[in-house]
Design brief:
The chain has helices at 19-35, 53-66, 89-101, 112-124, 140-148, 195-205, 221-231, 264-270, 274-282, 297-303, 318-330, 334-347, 355-368, 378-382, 398-401, 403-416, 424-438, 443-455, 463-470, 472-483; strands at residues 6-9, 38-41, 105-108, 154-157, 163-168, 172-177, 185-187, 210-214, 240-244, 247-248, 314-315. By secondary structure, the protein is mostly helical. The chain folds into four domains: 6-73 and 247-318, HUPs (Rossmann fold), CATH 3.40.50; 88-244, HUPs (Rossmann fold, 3-Layer(aba) Sandwich); 332-385, Helicase, Ruva Protein, domain 3 (Orthogonal Bundle), CATH 1.10.8; 394-483, Arc Repressor Mutant, subunit A. Helix 16 (403-416) runs antiparallel to helix 20 (472-483). This is glutamate--tRNA ligase. Belongs to the class-I aminoacyl-tRNA synthetase family. Glutamate--tRNA ligase type 1 subfamily.
Length: 485
RNA sequence: GGCCCCGUCGUCUAGCGGCCUAGGACUCUGGCUUCUCAAGUCAGCUACGAGGGUUCGAAUCCCUUCGGGGCUACCA
């Protein structure tokens, strides 16, 4: 029996989680769910100068919002915690000491300045910059001398001659010659651990079986494997690696602040649905193999396999995300749509959230559902139903003050006044009979004038439905008001 | 510079030696529908980076080349 699959997502929250992080998290999660395995969430906060509590909490919040639930990690706990590396310092210290004792690692007394000088020289000589092994085999006298100078040492892993090979699930057989993998630092001079130590130790201790991560970590894999060896892990207990291709910005550079929106918080504020974001991101670097594209989270889990992940990088395309978001919004039930819409309307101060307002919003949602691609468009679309100080947008004013329009409005007023059952059918029947048939006007001209008078804009939800929602009193008073302009 | 990864329409992709005069989706263009805007629907544009091989046959295999990206930290 093969062991149960455990996939981990281990971000280093040095800022808000961005699109690339989330795509990785999504794949990690989907793979765990697909295989019936465990999804583990770990915070890599060994770089205390860059990771903050605020970012950690934001990361937790973002994953929850997206619906990527984890089985082990912050808040939910688990048998292999703690899941914040900053709380596991003693564990790393133990292994670092052991590595030194085993001579797998050694103290390096070179100062940052000296190392930089070496690299500078290497660059000048057109050589590959990298640690030159200066402190690999210091004598006791040399060590004593350094100590007398008061030098603090880092712990460096000794890379043996030879190479490392491993099978990447996405890229196949990978081979790295140790000539190009210099001895690397495990522990800083102040005693704090580095990612290089912590990832490897944690993946083993937390019994992670599959490491799916960004391809930027591909060339650091031999270092992780070196740590497994030093830990005495047997080959069959090494995690399996799969290096995901990048998500890039429009100009082919890595996605960044200046190159497309990266922060998931931005997408949330804009009114993208989590399911749309996940659906779109899943299609970046992966496809189910057939022509299916509109997938629910459930279908995603059922269909997702690492083998189907592409090896080439993908460009982020906002237009396609928008298209998918529009699809997802249209697929929402009215109750769900209402739940998503309300916060946007309240935040924009279109409504306060009162019961009668919510009821009206609920009636109005069906007519705007197929007209928006983002939830943030809702306030502008429904504003006309709620504004106290109604005013026609300046750029459309002329279309309602011209004499032809005046005739249309005057006639409309006359025809609408007697209507007792204020429904869009009755409104439409009355206006069509008078404006189109009797006055012989083109619908777009006639209805255009009424639209501007009642909704304040040339663009609105369907006119008759809008007027029904607005109510008879408000509709008539707005038309009457337009007549006086 | 060195090491590594990658290369099919504008974009995301299907394709894993013959089913490909390369399919789907988004975008774009045009038509239909139509009270505006959408939605829907129909049609169209556009791709195997280049050059060599291997083969009866290559987008699919090999080599070279060009192009893009990553790593080369006491970041992750």
């Amino acid at each position: 029996m093969s062991k149960k699959i455990k996939v981990r997502f281990a971000p280093s929250p040095t800022g808000d989680l961005h699109v690339g992080n989330i795509r990785t998290a999504l794949f990690d999660w989907a793979y765990a769910r697909h295989t019936g395995g465990t999804f583990l969430f770990r915070i890599e906060d060994t770089d205390t100068t860059r990771v903050t509590d605020e970012y950690i909490n934001a990361a937790i919040d973002t994953l929850k919002w997206l619906g990527l639930d984890w089985d082990e990690g912050p808040e939910v706990g688990g048998d292999n915690g703690p899941y914040l590396q900053s709380q596991r310092l003693d564990i790393y210290a133990h292994w670092a000491a052991k590595f030194i004792e085993q001579k797998d690692a050694y103290h390096c007394y070179c100062s940052p300045e000296e190392l930089e000088a070496v690299r500078e020289a290497q660059r000048a000589a057109n050589q590959a910059p990298g640690y030159n092994g200066h402190c690999r085999d210091l004598t006791v006298e040399q060590i004593a001398a350094y100590k007398t100078q008061g030098r603090a040492a880092v712990v460096r892993m000794r890379m043996p001659d030879g190479g490392t090979t491993f099978n990447d699930l996405i890229r196949g057989e990978m081979a790295f010659d140790h000539k190009f993998v210099p001895d690397f630092v495990l522990v800083r001079a102040d005693g704090s651990p580095l990612y290089t130590l912590a990832v490897a130790v944690d993946d083993i201790l937390m019994k992670v079986t599959h490491v799916l991560r960004g391809e930027d970590l591909l060339s650091s894999t031999p270092r992780q494997i070196r740590v497994y060896q030093a830990m005495g892990v047997s080959l069959e207990d090494y995690p399996v690696f799969a290096h995901l291709p990048f998500v890039m910005g429009a100009d082919n550079a890595k996605l960044s602040k200046r190159n497309g929106e990266v922060s998931i918080a931005w997408y949330r504020d804009k009114g993208f649905l989590p399911e749309a974001i996940c659906n779109y991101l899943a299609l970046l670097g992966w496809s189910p193999g057939d022509d299916r594209e509109n997938l629910t989270m459930k279908e995603l889990c059922e269909l997702f396999t690492v083998e189907k992940v592409n090896s080439s990088p993908a460009r982020f395309d906002m237009k396609k995300l928008e298209a998918i978001n529009g699809d997802k919004i249209r697929a929402l039930t009215i109750d769900d749509f209402l739940t998503w819409a309300l916060p946007f309307l309240i935040k924009a101060q279109v409504i306060s959230g009162a019961e009668d307002e919510v009821a009206l919003v609920k009636r109005a949602l069906p007519i705007i559902q197929e007209r928006i691609i983002m939830l943030s468009e809702i306030p502008a679309m429904l504003k006309f139903l709620f504004v106290k100080d109604f005013a026609i947008e300046p750029e459309s004013l002329s279309k309602v003050t011209e004499s032809g329009a005046k005739d249309v409005l005057a006639r409309s007023l006359k025809e609408l006044e007697p209507i007792t059952d204020w429904t869009h059918e009755a409104i439409e029947a009355a206006l069509r009979a008078s404006l189109i048939e009797e006055m012989g006007l083109k619908p777009r001209i006639a209805f255009g004038a009424v639209r501007i008078a009642t909704t304040g804009s040339t663009i609105s939800p369907p006119l008759f439905e809008s007027m029904e929602l607005l109510g008879k009193a408000a509709s008539l008073s707005r038309i009457a008001a337009a007549l006086t302009l």
